[in-house]
């Protein structure tokens, strides 16, 4: 996870905490692994991503 200086400047403490909690939920939910698996499946079947979502 990367937080830019622009994000730090734009967000107050509560907002930053909410953004970080949201991103942590993606990590603990392993959403990136699901997305990789779907991309592999779509490429293997040659289905355009727009149709698969």
TrEMBL record:
Its cofactor is Zn(2+). The keyword Metal-binding applies. It holds the Pfam family Peptidase_M48. Binds 1 zinc ion per subunit. It comes from the Bacteria. One of its GO terms (biological process) is proteolysis. The keyword Zinc applies. InterPro entries: Peptidase_M48. Residues 1-39 form the Peptidase M48 domain. One of its GO terms (molecular function) is metalloendopeptidase activity. Keywords: Hydrolase, Metal-binding, Metalloprotease, Protease, Zinc. Belongs to the peptidase M48 family. This is M48 family metalloprotease. The lineage of its organism: Bacteria, Bacillati, Actinomycetota, Actinomycetes, Mycobacteriales.
